[in-house]
Amino acid sequence: MTTRWPSLVEFRRERLDLDPEYARLRAKAPVTRITLADGGRAWLVTGWEEARQVYSDPRFSRALAVADGEPTFIIDMDPPEHTRVRRTVAGAFTHRRVERMRPRVRELTAGLLDGMAAGGEPADPVQRLSLPLPVTVICELLGVPIEDRERFQSWSEAFLSVTAHTPEQIQDARRNLDGYLAGLIERRRAEPAADLLSALAGEDGLSERELVHLGVALLVAGHESTASQITNFAYTLLSRPERWRRLAGDPDLLPAAIEELLRYTPLGSETGLPRIAAQDVTLGGAAIGAGDTVLVARPAASRDPAVFADPDDLVLDRADNPHLAFGHGLHHCVGAHLARLELRAAFGGLLERFPGLRIAVPEAELRWKTGLVMRGPTALPVAWTAP
């Protein structure tokens, strides 16, 4: 027997809640046969252990799921191609190198919060902090002119569209991003600078298309995901004011709280990118055949009660937290250290400057992203003085 699943990308997405169907399926089995809206069939993974296996087992292939059979985005590659491409960029995101960026990230955060305070309330941290902080950081790291922000942000949104843009608009955005990065890379070859694009442009192990797509992936993922996380974490805490007050009163909790927010708060598509079984595999008691599609519900796996006590509660001081927010195995997010640095800087600054922060409008008035991979409010009006 199979379960009917309405969509490959999203299933009853309401605000930042997970559909309870995930938990019901996991209670029956960590791997479930499902039927998709288009009539296709797949396996849905909701168990933590099984999700880790899919992410780390080379028998589950991303490359086989790419339609044209020629993956050039790193997320779509299998080893050895993935290993070769990832090696060229991993050195820029080591813990030691990211730590060197801490003073600059704190400086940027302080300046943005100064502007937010000076602009008065209500303020929108989406525009004042969530977007400009990661955009500026990734632009400075890559060597992308910050004045081009409006151009590539509109392309990035279309690039990550599910239904908010037409297929033609999505293709146009991809071509524009490719052309934009190709032009920047060519300029860096002619005039190298102390930035990541210059370093990548000097690599001999990448094809031109791989190099351009790596630049696109770093630019888009480097700001869109963290921007959405800052906004979503702020909403998650401010819609539970007692959690915000606890963190404001005990800032030492922040590192553990960030990890718990990563575990608890969904970011984008619950089922992520499909993988194809390259051979017969047994997973969580399910016999998966070669050629079968496998989807991992990562947010659901990070709420597996076999691993996390009180999995549906936001426990700010959770001690043991092996969540899967950044994935696992060979596709573990290369920018995880940088994302954590930005998140801690953003919330450390917010909690210190605005301990009385609150959502300034009734929650029913908040508007949410639709038709995009990323989830979250489009704006989050806040105030900080006593009402």
TrEMBL record:
Superkingdom in the source lineage: Bacteria
UniProt entry keywords in alphabetical sequence? Heme, Iron, Metal-binding, Monooxygenase, Oxidoreductase
Q: Please give one Pfam family short name.
A: p450
Q: Which GO terms describe its molecular function?
A: heme binding; iron ion binding; monooxygenase activity; oxidoreductase activity, acting on paired donors, with incorporation or reduction of molecular oxygen
- PANTHER family from the UniProt entry: CYTOCHROME P450 YJIB-RELATED, P450, PUTATIVE (EUROFUNG)-RELATED
Family the UniProt entry places it in? Belongs to the cytochrome P450 family.
Q: What is this protein called?
A: Cytochrome P450
